[in-house]
């Protein structure tokens, strides 16, 4: 009993430290603490939901408040990614444990990746099965991968205005196919209004809005 | 097509100087996409010769009913600057050409392969294609239309993004000295571009710079100034020209940028942006800065233009014209470059809007728009 309590206390302290290290953008600290948490018996799910996830939420709050900017988002996301890489061998991932399958990419004609990468990490941290197709992704590739995986949600990003046409083309291709999932879009080239105009199911201004909306879309698909 | 370029040139000049033209001018950032669509040529076909590029550029601007005349590849020189750096450093294969849209270099490829900034070779813009073609075409367009060519450098963030990719954002915190060294290289390259421009096209009237770092969601203002603004400011002082600022981001630091440039000895003569979408904020901007021309305001290319109908475009244009036109120094312009998918009927609605609502003299600004 005492051993269990001690282990629990150690885990609690390590998760708290993880949260702080994510906000402090301390990648090596996050890696070290993740390994320590595993060593004291914390499960990957505990580490994600109790340490990394809340840390990223705190980063998101600071971004919303205007204290953090893209550099901080990028570095915190990289710290998070490093931790997820360490946890991956310990994660028992299956269709039953993942809340949904997401296909992500920056649309054809655009090579900007930061926003999309951060979204991928935040969704992965929440347990989603994320398949990142990278940048400059043609419409057919989105469709093929979504059908291959039976994806619940396809997420697309565009930063430059010229790329929105390809995004609209991709949405139209998905709609005309037998893809049954939902489509979420984001990126600096989009507004809520234009996202609606091109036929997307949801828009996200940042990674945390993307997470909330993907959760809602998954529920829609399931119901 | 019978396009009265003389009238366009006068309209633009009078507007920039704060006078009252016959009507609100209309300009476009016409780029490869729309030019390909109008001409039926691929981008490489357009760039085959200065004469061909100039002809396509003029044809595109005339079809659109624009009062501006510019080379259809010049409004943002980031991609071609990226190509020039790639060629100068032996990695032209990193550049990806598209048939009917703007080409791009793989972001970060150049600095990934030349990690030591000191070793990065600066391109010779008088020799590395497509710059000689772009510059000669700009001279031909200016000569045939009488519209002065726009000097649009990419100091510095658009070039940084091309050369360094997203790693640049990490550099802001982790490796600022590297980033500053890269900024200096880009600065030197843009000075070379300026020399080439002056020798082929002539001295421009202002520096039309893409200032992408200055967005509230991207960088702190002080970081944006450190890695972009100070270089733009130094450049304008070095060449003795005022500044026109392009920023098509969602939340630019307009006022802060202008105040800082003015405080550090550079005049700002024009802003070219699509945001904020709230016209009240543009009216407030106009009242605060009566000497600065506004090209754009809330005419976002991915809004009604891309997804609406001609009537929607007309209505948005009417609101912009009626709120800002009466003050003068206002140019209707969709921002940024127009995507392939924009219905041409929507683009042509802009010309109809300036003809219908943009005639001077105008009544006082409408408040019910």
Number of helical stretches of at least 4 residues of chain A: 9
Q: So what's the overall shape of chain B?
A: globular
Number of domains of chain B: 1
Rg of chain A: 18 Å
User: Which runs of chain A of at least 5 residues are low in confidence (pLDDT < 50)?
Assistant: none
What is the terminal separation of chain A in angstroms? 43 Å
List keywords for this structure.
A: alpha/beta; Methyltransferase, Methionine Synthase (B12-binding Domains), Chain A, domain 1; Rossmann fold; 5-stranded parallel sheet; globular; B: 369 residues; alpha/beta; TIM Barrel; 16 helices; 50% helix
Give an account of the 3D structure.
The complex is a heterodimer of chains A (223) and B (369). Chain A has 223 residues and is an alpha/beta fold. Chain A is 59% helix and 10% strand. In chain A, α1 runs parallel beside α3 and α4 packs across α5. Chain A starts with a helix and ends with a helix. Chain B has 16 helices and 7 strands. In chain B, 50% of the residues lie in helices and 7% in strands. In chain B, β3 (207-210), α11 (221-239) and β4 (243-247) form a beta-alpha-beta unit. In chain B, the strands form 2 sheets. In chain B, strands 3-4-5-6-7 form a 5-stranded parallel β-sheet, sandwiched between helices. Chain B has a two-stranded antiparallel ribbon with strand order 1-2. The model of chain B has no long low-confidence stretch (mean pLDDT 93). Chain B has one domain (5-357): Alpha-Beta Barrel (TIM Barrel), CATH 3.20.20.210. Chain B has helices at 5-16, 32-39, 43-46, 50-64, 78-88, 109-113, 131-145, 157-164, 167-174, 176-200, 221-239, 254-263, 279-288, 301-307, 310-324, 344-357; strands at 95-96, 104-105, 207-210, 243-247, 268-273, 293-296, 330-331. Classes of the chains: A alpha/beta (223), B alpha/beta (369).
């Amino acid at each position: 009993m005492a051993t269990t309590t001690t282990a629990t206390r150690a885990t609690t302290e390590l998760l708290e430290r993880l949260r702080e290290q994510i906000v402090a953008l301390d990648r090596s600290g996050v890696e070290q603490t993740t390994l320590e948490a595993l060593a004291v018996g914390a499960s990957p799910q505990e580490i994600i939901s109790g340490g990394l996830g809340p840390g990223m939420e705190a980063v998101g709050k600071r971004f919303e408040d205007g204290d953090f900017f893209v550099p901080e988002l990028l570095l915190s996301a990289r710290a998070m990614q490093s931790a997820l890489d360490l946890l991956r061998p310990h994660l028992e991932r299956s269709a039953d444990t993942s809340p949904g399958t997401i296909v992500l990419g920056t649309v054809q004609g655009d090579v900007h990746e930061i926003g999309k990468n951060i979204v991928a990490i935040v969704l992965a941290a929440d347990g989603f099965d994320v398949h990142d197709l990278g940048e400059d992704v043609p419409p057919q590739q989105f469709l093929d991968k979504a059908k291959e995986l039976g994806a619940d949600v396809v997420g697309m990003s565009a930063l430059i205005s010229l790329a929105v046409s390809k995004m609209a083309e991709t949405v139209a291709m998905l709609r005309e196919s037998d893809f049954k999932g939902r489509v979420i879009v984001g990126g600096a080239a989009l507004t809520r209004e234009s996202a609606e105009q091109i036929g997307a199911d949801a828009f996200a201004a940042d990674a945390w809005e993307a997470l909330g909306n993907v959760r809602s879309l998954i529920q829609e698909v399931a119901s | 097509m019978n396009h009265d370029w003389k009238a366009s040139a006068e309209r633009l000049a009078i507007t920039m100087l704060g006078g009252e033209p016959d009507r609100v001018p209309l300009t476009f950032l016409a780029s490869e996409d729309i030019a390909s669509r109008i001409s039926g040529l691929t981008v490489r076909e357009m760039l085959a010769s200065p004469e061909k590029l100039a002809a396509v550029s003029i044809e595109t601007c005339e079809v659109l009913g624009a009062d501006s005349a510019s080379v259809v590849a010049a409004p943002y020189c980031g991609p071609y600057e990226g190509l020039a750096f790639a060629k100068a450093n032996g990695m032209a294969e990193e550049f990806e050409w598209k048939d009917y849209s703007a080409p791009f270099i793989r972001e970060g490829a150049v600095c990934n392969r030349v990690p030591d900034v000191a070793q990065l070779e600066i391109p010779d813009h008088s020799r590395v294609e497509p710059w000689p073609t772009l510059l000669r075409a700009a001279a031909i367009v200016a000569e045939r239309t009488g519209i002065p060519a726009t000097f649009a450098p990419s100091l510095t963030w658009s070039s940084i993004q091309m050369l360094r990719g997203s790693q640049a954002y990490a550099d802001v915190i982790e490796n600022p000295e590297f980033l500053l060294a890269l900024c200096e290289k880009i600065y030197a390259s843009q000075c070379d571009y300026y020399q080439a421009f002056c020798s082929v096209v002539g001295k421009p009237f202002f520096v039309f710079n893409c200032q992408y770092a200055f967005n509230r969601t991207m960088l702190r203002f002080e970081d944006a100034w450190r890695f972009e603004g100070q270089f733009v400011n130094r450049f304008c002082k070095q060449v003795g020209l005022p500044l026109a600022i392009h920023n098509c981001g969602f939340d630019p630091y307009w006022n802060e940028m202008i105040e800082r440039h003015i405080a550090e000895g550079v005049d700002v003569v024009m802003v070219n942006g699509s945001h904020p979408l709230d016209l009240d904020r543009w009216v407030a901007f106009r009242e605060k800065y009566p000497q600065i021309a506004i090209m754009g305001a809330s005419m976002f290319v991915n809004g009604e233009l891309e997804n609406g109908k001609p009537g929607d475009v007309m209505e948005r244009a009417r609101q912009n014209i009626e709120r800002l036109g009466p003050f003068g120094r206002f140019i209707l312009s969709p921002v940024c470059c127009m995507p392939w998918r924009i219905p041409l009927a929507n683009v042509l609605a802009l010309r109809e809007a300036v003809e219908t609502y943009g005639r001077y003299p105008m009544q006082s600004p409408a408040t019910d728009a």
